[in-house]
């Protein structure tokens, strides 16, 4: 069992004692009681191996924004079970962003209990992790963008599961987009030949996911007239 | 801290330019006040440009102090609050709620009572909380509450002041009515405020509407509001027996409103197998059922979307919204939805059916037709459409097969019905149009890892206890499977993969974890007599656990149990399900002559019980339904 330093003696801030069994992030099992009281979302992720379980709609959207963030290399939902004072506490997500480890808690208007926030912040700081509280509203601002990305991520997750190799096709597509800047999706994927163009479709999504190609998905979903710009 | 208007301008020099103040449209101000507003604006503009207040006052016939008060109103105030600016120019506009600064009037110092009541609420400890608690208890119907009226509320107000030792020579006791009018106004205002709908603390669903097909799919179950019958052939006599209600499982696309597929489960509690059967309908082309009921036929073009083309069988489904039923939590279902179809599952909050309002609406539409049938249960126990009690002991007129076919026809017809919220288009038109003109992401083509959609696989361990001289076995659904395929010492205690057809689990195909085919293993002979599905095996095992049937020859035991208790509609429905699961002739859905294996003289009691309902059942047709009210 790992214990954080007891700083309760500090006159300025009240810190509770924090303990945990492991600091290796792994998705904690959701209790049946929580499963039937929370708004549960289950999704196959790309930057987290396996099915991610998210306990609210903002958490679900946040996981999508983490997937499309080029600086984020991996994340783990519900990574640790901490005991702060006498209360169990499970933070929402563990993120590796640009090589830095961070633990994020998503909260609504009410915010996180200040004692928990200060205690967890001090505990994670001792182990080189940054703990922060993110408001739900900050996540909901990017709702449209996350929902526009969702189908692409789902197709990629299926393709990864099927072991589809799209490297050669992706390379060809990227070369073509560099040679003809301003190409549209409709020039690559034809509506009439969709069922047979699966490899090209996955390769295109892979290039967008890897940020080798960009298009405006913040305001509108991917469509045949979306313009592709090589990075 | 209050600051002077000059200090505000010194601190924020940009405020000295009145053209940068917030704009208020002068034409929106009543004409009798517009002139004063324009005059105020000119006065402030001239003073801010550097003219003396005295000169400006002279021009407009005002006193300099009036000019100073106007500027203080626009630019002065508390240091931490933003200045009123243009709003301060509006004549007679009350910018702040009034607060009382003067002391309360007493007998010796008589004064006005303006804002005294509000000041009293803030001044007397606990008074506001006490009054609010009374109002809240009244609104919420609390046990401690009362139906409040102004008079008792005022009495409670006075009583609290007396208990708090509020001086007798101070407001409200100096006033003629003891602040009755203010108390009544406060009661009415707070009643309105406290009964306002509260903003939900958490975000339950997206405020955005779904516009793309397959972006959101809602699935739910509904117990059909109608009982049916089936004819059972026992010893040459056809008995019509009443069946319990069946369950409809329906999937609906949110953007187009199209029904994607349905399954009719012959039980009150559908299992994960039924849910998987529904998912198969989404990804395999739909084929119309053969209709045997006279007068029923599919409308041309009325199909489910999976019949529209290969692209419609491979959409990447966004979010599938389900409720918290146990069948939805099954691992098999989660694997199918998340891992194979790549969708997101949302179980939703409990007791929030409106979060899946579209699917609930579909059941409402279906009930319009189902409630026309005489044997309907109606929407509630007092529904006048409900089946008459005097008919409850007899089998309903409609057969199970006719009911199933009618539901299928009604559901498919919805997809070609023009809908107002789609601008007069039909759901299928929207589907076709979006698939042709929008980039609807498609899933990978099926990998064909399994031979049919009914095949499933799971891992199992090959076991052989040391003291056991029998061959190695695989424990699968409470039954030991043995066969040549696993008679290898190297396989003992090793994990293998078994592949089975969930419609018939008498034998399993065994593969190594690397995918090498080893052969097949078979269930004991007691389970070999009839083909049986996984769901049926689970049901039989549940009956064995509850000591309702014997462990030896469980299939026949279960059949006889159902046949003996066939007068109970739920067990009669189990009997139909059993026959279909065993692929007996009744599985074809014949309404009049479903089979029964010949039973050697064990059903005399049952036969006598069913004799009352032994009758020639006429073939049901749509003309038998009641006229729509």
- Regarding quaternary structure, what we see is heterodimer
Shape of chain A: elongated
Mean pLDDT of chain A: 88
The class by helix and strand makeup of chain B works out as: alpha+beta
Give the number of helices of chain A. Answer: 7
* Lateral arrangement of strands in the main beta sheet of chain A: 1-2-6-7
Helical coverage of chain B, percent range:
25-40%
Strand residues, percent of chain B = 5-15%
- Helix/strand-derived category of chain A reads alpha+beta
Query: How far from one another are the termini of chain B?
Result: 72 Å
Q: What series of H and E elements makes up the topology of chain A?
A: EEHEEHEEEEEHEHHHHEE
Task: Let me know the largest β-sheet of chain A.
Answer: 4 strands, antiparallel
Side by side, the strands of the main sheet of chain B go 12-11-10-13-14-15
What's the total number of strands of chain A?
Answer: 12
Backbone CA Rg of chain A: 21 Å
Give me the Rg of chain B, rounded.
Answer: 39 Å
Report on this model:
The complex is a heterodimer of chains A (231) and B (629). Chain A is an alpha+beta fold. Chain A is elongated and about 60 Å long. In chain A, a hairpin with a 2-residue loop joins strand 6 and strand 7. About 3% of the residues of chain A have low confidence. Chain B is built from 17 helices and 15 strands. About 5% of the residues of chain B have low confidence. Chains A and B meet through strand 3, helix 2, helix 5 and helix 7 of A and helix 10 and strand 9 of B.
Would you spell out the secondary-structure blueprint of this structure?
The complex is a heterodimer of chains A (231) and B (629).
Chain A (H helix, E strand, L loop, with lengths): L1 E2 L14 E3 L11 H4 L5 E4 L6 E4 L2 H11 L4 E6 L4 E3 L2 E3 L3 E5 L2 E8 L6 H13 L3 E6 H5 L2 H20 L4 H13 L18 H12 L3 E2 L14 E2 L1
Chain B lengths: L1 E2 L1 H7 L19 H18 L4 H8 L3 H12 L1 E2 L37 H8 L3 H14 L9 H14 L16 H15 L21 E8 L4 E7 L2 E7 L3 E7 L5 E7 L6 H12 L35 E3 L9 H10 L3 E3 L10 H14 L29 H15 L12 H11 L17 E9 L9 E4 L2 E3 L13 E7 L2 E8 L5 E6 L11 H12 L8 H11 L4 H13 L22 H7 L19
Parallel strand pairs in B: 3-8, 8-9
Antiparallel strand pairs in B: 1-2, 3-6, 4-5, 6-7, 10-11, 10-13, 11-12, 13-14, 14-15
């Amino acid at each position: 069992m790992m214990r954080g330093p007891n700083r309760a003696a500090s006159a300025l801030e009240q810190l509770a004692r924090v303990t945990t069994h492991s600091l290796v992030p792994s998705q904690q099992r959701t209790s049946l009681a929580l499963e039937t009281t929370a708004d549960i979302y289950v999704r196959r992720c790309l930057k987290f191996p396996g099915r991610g379980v998210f306990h609210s709609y903002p958490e679900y959207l946040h996981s999508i924004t983490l997937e499309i963030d080029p600086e984020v290399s991996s994340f783990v939902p519900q990574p640790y079970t901490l005991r702060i004072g006498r209360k169990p506490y499970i933070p929402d997500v563990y993120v590796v962003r640009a090589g830095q480890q961070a633990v994020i808690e998503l909260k609504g208007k009410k915010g996180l209990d200040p004692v928990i926030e200060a205690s967890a912040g001090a505990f994670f700081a001792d182990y080189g992790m940054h703990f922060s509280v993110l408001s739900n509203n900050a996540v909901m601002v990017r709702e449209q963008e996350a929902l526009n990305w969702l189908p692409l991520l789902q197709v990629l997750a299926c393709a990864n599961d099927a072991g589809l190799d799209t490297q050669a096709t992706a390379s060809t597509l990227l070369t073509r987009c560099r040679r003809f800047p301003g190409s549209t999706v409709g020039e690559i994927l034809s509506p009439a030949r969709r069922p047979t163009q699966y490899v090209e479709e996955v390769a295109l999504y892979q290039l967008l996911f890897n940020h080798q190609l960009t298009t405006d998905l913040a305001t509108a979903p991917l469509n045949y007239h979306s313009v592709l710009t090589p990075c | 801290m209050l600051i002077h208007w000059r200090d505000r301008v010194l601190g924020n020099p940009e405020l000295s330019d009145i053209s940068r103040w917030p704009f208020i449209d002068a034409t929106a101000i009543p004409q009798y006040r517009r002139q004063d507003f324009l005059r105020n604006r000119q006065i402030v503009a001239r003073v801010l440009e550097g003219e003396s207040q005295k000169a400006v006052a002279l021009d407009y016939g005002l006193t300099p102090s009036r000019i100073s008060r106007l500027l203080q109103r626009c630019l002065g105030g508390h240091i931490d609050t933003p200045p009123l600016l243009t709003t301060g120019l509006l004549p007679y506009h009350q910018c702040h709620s009034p607060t009382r600064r003067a002391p309360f009037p007493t007998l010796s110092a008589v004064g006005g009572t303006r804002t005294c009541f509000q000041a009293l609420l803030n001044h007397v400890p606990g008074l506001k909380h006490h009054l609010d608690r009374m109002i809240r208890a009244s609104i919420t119907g609390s046990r401690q509450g009362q139906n409040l009226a102004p008079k008792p509320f005022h009495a409670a107000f006075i009583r609290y002041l007396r208990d708090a030792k509020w001086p007798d020579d101070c407001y409200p006791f100096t006033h003629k009515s003891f602040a009755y009018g203010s108390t009544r106004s406060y009661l009415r205002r707070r009643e309105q405020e406290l009964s306002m709908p509260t903003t939900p603390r958490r975000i339950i669903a997206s405020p955005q509407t779904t516009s793309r097909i397959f972006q959101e799919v809602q699935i739910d179950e509904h117990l059909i509001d109608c009982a049916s019958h089936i004819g059972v052939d026992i010893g040459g006599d056809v008995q019509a027996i009443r069946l319990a209600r069946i369950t409809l499982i329906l999937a609906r696309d949110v953007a187009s409103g199209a029904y994607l597929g349905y399954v009719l489960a012959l039980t009150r509690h559908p299992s994960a197998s039924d849910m998987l059967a529904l998912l198969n309908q989404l990804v395999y082309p739909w084929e119309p059922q053969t209709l045997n009921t006279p007068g029923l036929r599919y409308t041309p073009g009325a199909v489910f979307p999976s019949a529209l083309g290969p692209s419609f069988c491979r959409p990447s489904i966004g979010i599938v919204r389900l409720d918290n039923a146990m069948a939805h939590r099954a691992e098999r279902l989660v694997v199918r939805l998340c891992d194979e179809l790549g969708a997101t599952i949302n179980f939703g909050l409990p007791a929030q059916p409106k979060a899946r309002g579209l699917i609930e609406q579909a059941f409402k539409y279906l009930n319009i037709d189902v409630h026309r049938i005489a044997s309907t249960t109606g929407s509630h126990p007092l529904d006048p459409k409900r089946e008459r009690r005097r008919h409850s002991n007899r089998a309903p007129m409609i057969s199970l097969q006719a009911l199933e076919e009618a539901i299928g026809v009604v559901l498919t017809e919805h997809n070609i019905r023009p809908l107002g919220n789609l601008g007069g288009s039909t759901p299928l038109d929207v589907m076709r149009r979006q698939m042709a003109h929008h980039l609807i992401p498609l899933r990978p083509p099926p990998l064909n890892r399994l031979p049919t959609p009914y095949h499933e696989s799971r891992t199992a361990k090959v076991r052989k206890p040391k003291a056991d001289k029998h061959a190695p076995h695989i424990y699968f659904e409470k039954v030991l499977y043995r066969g040549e395929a696993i008679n290898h010492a190297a396989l003992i205690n090793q994990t293998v993969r078994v592949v089975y057809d969930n419609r018939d689990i008498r034998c399993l195909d065994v593969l190594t974890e690397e995918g090498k085919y080893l052969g097949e293993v078979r269930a004991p002979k007691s389970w070999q007599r009839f083909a049986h599905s996984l769901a049926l095996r689970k049901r039989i095992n549940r009956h064995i656990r509850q000591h309702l049937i014997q462990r030896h020859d469980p299939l026949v035991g279960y059949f006889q149990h159902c046949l003996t208790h066939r007068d109970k509609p739920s067990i009669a429905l189990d009997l139909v399900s059993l026959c279909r699961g065993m692929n007996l002739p009744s599985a074809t859905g014949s309404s009049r002559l479903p089979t029964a294996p010949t039973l050697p003289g064990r059903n005399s009691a049952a036969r006598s019980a069913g004799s009352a309902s032994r009758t020639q059942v006429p073939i049901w047709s749509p003309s038998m339904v009641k006229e729509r009210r």
